[in-house]
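Long-time lurker, first post.

We've been arguing in lab meeting about whether zinc ion would sit comfortably in this protein at all. Half the group thinks yes, half thinks no, and nobody has a model to point at. So I'm putting the question to the forum: if I give you the sequence and the SMILES, can you give me back a predicted structure of the complex? Inputs are below. Any interpretation is welcome too.
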Amino acid sequence: MKAVFFDKDGVLNKDSGIIWPKLELPYKQVADVISNLRSQGFLIFIISNRTEMARGLATEEEVVKSLLDFKLQIIEQNKEAIIEKIYYCPHHPNATIETYRANCSCRKPHSDLLIKAKEEYNICLNKSFMVGDRVSDIIAGNSVGCKTIQIISNENLVEKLIESNISEEIINSYSSPHYKITHLTQIYEIIS
Ligand SMILES: [Zn+2]
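Top reply:
Settle the argument with this. Predicted structure of the protein with zinc ion, as tokens:
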């Protein structure tokens, strides 16, 4: 199987900078983009770093519910816009809540969540795409052999990768996306 992995905040919805409660709606073109990619034979996944639990702002159940609500909002717009699964990392190296304090290997730029999807859905990563706005999305995708698409917007945040416990060598080798776009629908120019 081939897949398109999407980062969530800043890609499928506006990144308001508000961590919790999560109220952002999906961008209106998202459902049609997902439906189109599915019609081309791609499975669709969301790969997301969630820091709400680590910061003590929400329980894991509340975060999972907000992610499922998000998925339902998309499918309400287009019934073919099925997201197969949402993978999230609940950890943070500086978490205030001890349960979630970890230098894990599932928080992007690490790629364990992509590997997990590969194993659970028999995904061929070389035929798959990772779409994100941050360098950490691009590193995660490139380091497992996905094609990577970076959405460049004015809202792109300067990202601190120092905390992520990843080597400079990896950052330098994997930070460049295969494609850069400014709008989600430009994905049709790459995948069609
Ligand atoms: Zn993690």
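For your lab meeting: The CA atoms of residues 53 and 61 lie 10 Å apart. The beta strands are 2-6, 42-49, 85-89, 129-132, 147-151, 179-181. Whichever side wins, do check it experimentally.
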